[in-house]
Recover the amino acids of this structure.
């Protein structure tokens, strides 16, 4: 990525959209401090983040949760849902499952026996286990059926508003981004080509690239 400047604020959802290779997932890795920027910096809570040592970052890591595209590959197949959540720091597993719309009885199940939508809800529960301030969601619905995508996005939107989270939503699909974003940044070839309030970007896109993404985007109906 080159010259990317983004601000993620508490209580807001920032949607980052772009085709494969646009650099959007690199942004997620930089924000999670899984990769160091060659130039520039990332700050968290007004403090250096990307330039800090891992020892300095460790106390703050629980304040950032992450949800990824492939939930199954991030689960230990030998563990039950309950053990996965307790290992992530959950105190009351049943309450946490209820927050994401799952029955407490699912704590005894293996993630392998769950549907794709249920597994992604478990992923969201795991990300919320430490009560984070920031939630980074990298293609959280792209592996799901269209019928399930809107349900998961509505859940994320509810959680973001209920807990005042700063939520970063990353997707190749502008329809997904439009579903719940307050602000949108459009990326292409490692650069932000357009950004602004979601309503303005969607109503009057300034970039031809954004117009093409908008024309190709399916509509996900809210519940």
């Amino acid at each position: 990525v080159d010259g990317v400047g983004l601000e993620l604020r508490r209580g807001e959802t920032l949607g980052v959209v772009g085709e494969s290779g646009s650099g959007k997932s690199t942004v997620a890795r930089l924000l999670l401090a899984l990769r160091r920027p060659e130039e520039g910096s990332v700050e968290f809570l007004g403090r250096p983040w990307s330039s800090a040592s891992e020892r300095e970052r460790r106390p703050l890591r629980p304040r950032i949760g992450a949800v990824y595209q492939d939930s199954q590959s991030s689960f230990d197949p030998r563990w039950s849902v309950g053990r996965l959540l307790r290992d992530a720091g959950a105190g009351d597993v049943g309450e946490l499952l209820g927050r994401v719309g799952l029955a407490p009885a699912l704590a005894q199940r293996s993630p392998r026996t769950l549907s794709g939508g249920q597994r992604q809800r478990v992923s969201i529960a795991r990300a919320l286990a430490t009560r984070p301030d920031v939630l980074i969601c990298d293609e959280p619905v792209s592996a799901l059926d269209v019928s399930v995508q809107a349900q998961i996005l509505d859940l994320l939107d509810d959680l973001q508003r209920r807990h005042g989270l700063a939520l970063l939503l990353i997707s190749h699909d502008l329809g997904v981004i439009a579903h719940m974003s307050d602000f949108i940044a459009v990326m292409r070839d490692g650069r932000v080509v357009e950004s602004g309030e979601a309503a303005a970007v969607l109503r009057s896109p300034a970039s031809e690239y954004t117009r093409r993404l908008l024309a190709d985007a399916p509509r996900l109906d809210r519940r």
Observations:
- The CA atoms of residues 82 and 107 lie 4 Å apart.
- The mean pLDDT is 92.
